[in-house]
Design goal:
Strand content: 15-25%
Radius of gyration: 12 Å
Distance between the termini: 34 Å
CATH architecture: 2-Layer Sandwich
Largest sheet: 3 strands, antiparallel
Structural class: alpha+beta
Helix content: 25-40%
CATH superfamily: Signal recognition particle, SRP19-like subunit
CATH topology: Phenylalanyl-tRNA Synthetase, Chain B, domain 1
């Protein structure tokens, strides 16, 4: 089974692309949480597991955790991250 990992940094509007943001600024939110990301993943229809004790390599000082997405073989990682970002933005509005 293919697993995709989504780090909060991918969706963080305070980070530049060089610092790890992977979505356009209009899909990014300030300080996204693993709980928000996991909820968005489940809204899309995939299984999400939160790993809170992990740190993204580009921000090793921040223990924000990560979300492991299972069952997303039918989608590219980029499409998955964009869809999750759109849901997080919608949940915050």
């Amino acid at each position: 089974m293919v697993e995709n990992v989504i780090w909060p940094a991918y969706l963080d509007s305070t980070l530049s692309r060089a610092d790890g943001r992977r979505v356009p600024q209009d899909l990014a939110v300030e300080e996204p949480t693993v709980d928000e990301i996991a909820k968005a993943v489940q809204q899309i229809g995939y299984d999400a597991a939160i790993e809170r004790d992990k740190a993204y390599s580009r921000e090793s000082w921040a223990d924000r955790g990560r979300v492991v997405v299972r069952g997303a073989e039918d989608s590219t990682k980029n499409d998955l991250v964009q869809a999750v970002a759109a849901y997080v933005v919608a949940m915050r509005e």
